[in-house]
Write a structure and sequence with these properties.
The chain has no helices and 7 strands. The strands form 2 sheets. It has a 5-stranded mixed sheet, with no helix packed on it. It has about 110 residues and is mainly beta. It starts with a strand and ends in a 6-residue tail after the last strand.
Length: about 110
């Protein structure tokens, strides 16, 4: 995902877990985190998803989509999803999106 979103705006990303055969499945557990790609700044720490499924809508609040380095436009953020933590079926997936600096938003 490389779509640009406006600074301080909410972003919704749908995570679609896949098994080793690339088939959709509903994991036993799921969690996510959000980080700034370049600075590796944690924006949202590991957060559990209450009801894991084969299509999980993750809402990233606008407060997490802030511009960190004013010289960089747009900035890339990464949503990391971890399913089945600690099980033999454990899997990680990344969803990268961009946040556009609106210049006059603080």
């Amino acid at each position: 995902m490389s779509r640009s979103h406006n600074e301080l705006s909410q972003v919704t990303i749908t995570a679609n877990p896949r098994d080793l055969q690339n088939n959709p499945y509903s994991p036993t557990t799921a969690r996510y985190r959000v980080d700034d790609c370049e600075s590796k700044t944690e924006l949202i720490g590991w957060t559990s998803i209450a009801t894991p499924s084969s299509a999980m809508e993750i809402v990233i609040p606008g407060s997490a989509n802030k511009i960190i380095r004013s010289q960089r436009n747009p900035e890339s953020k990464v949503l990391t999803v971890n399913t089945d933590e600690g099980l033999s079926t454990q899997h990680y997936e990344e969803y990268i999106y961009r946040v556009k600096d609106l210049k006059f938003v603080s």
